[in-house]
Design brief:
The complex is a heterodimer of chains A (281) and B (290).
Chain A (H helix, E strand, L loop, with lengths): L1 E5 L7 H11 L3 E5 L7 H5 L2 E15 L9 H5 L5 E4 L2 E4 L9 H5 L5 E16 L2 E8 L7 H8 L7 E5 L6 H7 L4 E6 L3 H16 L4 E6 L7 H8 L4 E5 L3 H9 L3 H4 L3 H20 L1
Helix pairs in contact in A: 1-11, 5-6
Chain B lengths: L1 E6 L7 H11 L3 E5 L7 H5 L2 E16 L9 H5 L5 E2 L2 E2 L9 H5 L5 E16 L2 E8 L6 H18 L4 E5 L6 H7 L4 E6 L3 H16 L4 E6 L5 H13 L3 E6 L4 H7 L4 H4 L3 H18 L5
Parallel strand pairs in B: 1-8, 1-9, 2-7, 2-8, 9-10, 10-11
Antiparallel strand pairs in B: 3-6, 4-5, 6-7
Helix pairs in contact in B: 1-11, 5-6
Bound molecules: iron/sulfur cluster (4 copies).
Chain lengths: 281, 290
């Protein structure tokens, strides 16, 4: 089973839920797909065993063959390659690595070379299989890295995917294909506003979902009203607690600070399992 | 005209709360919401929309079934696995157009794709430009650039000399679009291991684009040891820490009341934000060397 963890709003406790769920279960693979700001490793402290460079194929023009016909520039939907007079200019940050230019070039003047956009690190955190991706700083495009990272998903395990916040392409890339999506929110106007957007996204992907309300005793009650109205199950509530915040600030997992939470996370997992079964049965 | 972008790397550090407070404290500014994905600034500034425009972020392929003879070439060439059983999956499609060029029967055309909206509004603190990207759409960077460009036009028209941009979380394309060319970037962080980790990455991006940065530590008293670490880190890099805000539940209460913290309360948090704003304003006025 693949469980993805997401949230419209950032900083609501996605990583807390993901890492503690991982620590409370057996046979888990934790895949941190928040490649812009991965944080799971700060809590799970994995032993990294392997580092894999991830690139996308980008064009390299052979000047001796190029006639500056401009076909490559015409075909590129992202203006990543431009032909001016006797020069082909290439803007690597704009290139999606689609291969359109090399496909179209009539002179066979374009060769594709790998350009690194990030790395994937794999290892072990106790019994947990750990994978995360790190987008290189200054690199705009996260989805290709997330796509590659997801090839390392081990279907024999309970897979927990942490995503970045929001509803745009990197989040969709991380969440799609999962069996269940857990959305973490907090009961404030910002939390609710962003939760609505996240729910819309997960429904568009046709993935069953449930909610975790973090800091459930702050703010107002509108998140619960919304969930009731939309028939979305609230699967867990975590109160605001100075001990939790302090442990978090030091990178100490919640279930280590307050061991009683272990059974709560196991219960969360069981509820998810039941819902996934109902959904597929 | 000066542009200030407030970013955070890690989400949920209080970036929008602080940006909204700046909206109330600054004078003669245009506000721009650079978070077009999960925007929150409007919840506090309650804009009245004056103008709404559609945003077309790129093109998407359209398959004409009548012309398709199911040769399968498009599925072979697509590098994003976006075509299955002769149907294009809009969520996986990157809009590269290769399938159109490869199709021997001209069965695929590329059409402008509606990807969201952008707005020009009035708020109690002056004009605001904001956007809303469609759910699961890409091209957020382009929409952020558009929002900034429109904010600049308004600032020119109305003779305003400051644009305050609420940036998105992360370090990817919308963040880059929100900060490139800005006169000053304020990074809001919190004293947690994740906050520090993410701050380092987001300051890395600011450095990559040669931008001047300042730092604000929110909820600094959650872990004063980590706050010291952040200050040390900033000192070493000559980055000014312009504010240290204590944790205070009043911040959430202000949000629930849909007010900026400076409107809601005149306590210690408001005081610190006011002083912080004065330092930022002074900094902006000094004409930073990029
Ligand atoms: S399509 Fe090929 S030959 Fe034409 S300008 Fe591009 S690289 Fe040169
Ligand atoms: S690979 Fe695609 S995106 Fe990159 S330059 Fe070529 S046509 Fe443009
Ligand atoms: S390449 Fe054209 S004709 Fe062939 S399957 Fe695709 S759309 Fe149909
Ligand atoms: S436009 Fe590109 S990504 Fe989309 S279906 Fe065609 S080949 Fe695939």
């Amino acid at each position: 089973m693949i469980i993805s963890i997401s949230s419209g709003k950032g900083g609501t406790g996605k990583t807390t839920i993901g890492t503690n769920l991982a620590l409370s279960l057996e046979g888990v693979q934790y895949v941190d797909c928040d490649v812009e700001e991965p944080n799971g490793h700060l809590f799970l402290k994995p032993q990294i065993e392997e580092r894999i460079s991830v690139g996308i194929p980008v064009p390299q023009v052979d000047k001796s063959k190029c006639t500056y016909c401009g076909e490559c520039a015409k075909v590129c939907e992202f203006n990543a390659i431009v032909v001016v007079k006797e020069k082909v200019l290439f803007f690597p940050e704009l290139c999606h690595g689609c291969g359109g230019c090399s496909y179209i070039c009539p002179e066979d003047a374009i060769e594709e070379v790998e350009r690194e956009i990030g790395v994937i690190e794999r290892g072990k955190a106790g019994d947990i299989e750990f994978v995360h991706g790190l987008l290189n700083v200054g690199e705009p495009m996260a989805p290709p890295l997330i796509r590659t990272e997801k090839q390392f998903i081990n279907n024999d395990k309970t897979v927990i995917i942490d995503s970045s916040p929001g509803t745009s392409c990197p989040v969709v890339e991380a969440v799609k294909g999962s069996d269940f999506c857990l959305l973490v929110t907090e009961p404030t106007p910002f939390g609710l506003n962003d939760l609505r957007l996240a729910v819309e996204m997960v429904r568009k992907l046709k993935i069953p979902l449930g909610i975790v309300v973090n800091c459930c005793d702050i703010g107002d009650r509108e998140v619960w009203q919304y969930c009731e109205y939309e028939s979305i199950p609230v699967l867990m509530e975590i109160p605001q607690d100075r001990r939790i915040a302090e442990a978090y600030s030091k990178g100490i997992p919640l279930v280590e600070e307050i061991p009683e939470y272990r059974s709560r996370f196991q219960d969360l997992y069981n509820q998810i399992g039941k819902r996934v079964q109902e959904e597929s049965g | 005209m000066k542009e200030l972008t407030v970013i955070s790397g890690k989400g949920g550090t209080g970036k929008t709360t602080i940006t909204a407070a700046f909206a109330a404290l600054a004078q003669g500014q245009v506000m721009a919401d650079g978070d077009v994905d999960a925007a929150d600034l409007h919840l506090i500034l309650t804009p009245r929309i004056k103008k709404e425009e559609a945003f077309y972020g790129g093109r998407a392929p359209l398959m004409n079934k009548d012309k398709c003879d199911e040769c399968g070439i498009c599925m072979e060439v697509c590098r994003f696995g976006a075509i299955h059983d002769f149907v294009i999956d809009p969520i996986s499609c990157e809009g590269c157009g290769l399938c159109m060029h490869a199709c021997p029967n001209d069965a695929i055309t590329m059409e402008e794709k509606f990807s969201g909206h952008w707005f020009i509004s009035d708020t109690r603190f002056g004009p605001m430009v904001h956007g809303k990207l469609g759910i699961a759409e890409d091209n957020s960077g382009k929409l952020v650039s558009l929002v900034r460009q429109q904010a600049k036009l308004i600032a020119e028209e109305e003779n305003k000399d400051l644009i305050i941009i609420d940036g998105p979380p992360g370090i990817g394309c919308p963040v880059i679009a929100a900060i490139t060319g800005a006169d000053l970037v304020l990074a809001v962080t919190e004293p947690t291991l994740s906050g520090i980790h993410d701050l380092e990455r987001v300051l890395g991006v600011a450095g990559h684009f040669n931008l001047r940065a300042m730092v604000c530590v929110n909820k600094f008293d959650i872990n004063t040891e980590n706050t010291e670490k952040i200050k040390e880190y900033c000192r070493e890099r000559n980055i000014e820490v312009v504010g240290e805000i204590p944790y205070d539940p009043i911040v959430t209460r202000a949000m629930v009341a849909r007010q900026t913290i400076t409107e809601y309360d005149s306590g210690v948090v408001t005081d610190i934000i006011k002083r912080m704003w004065a330092r930022i304003e002074a900094g902006l006025g000094n004409g930073f060397e990029r």
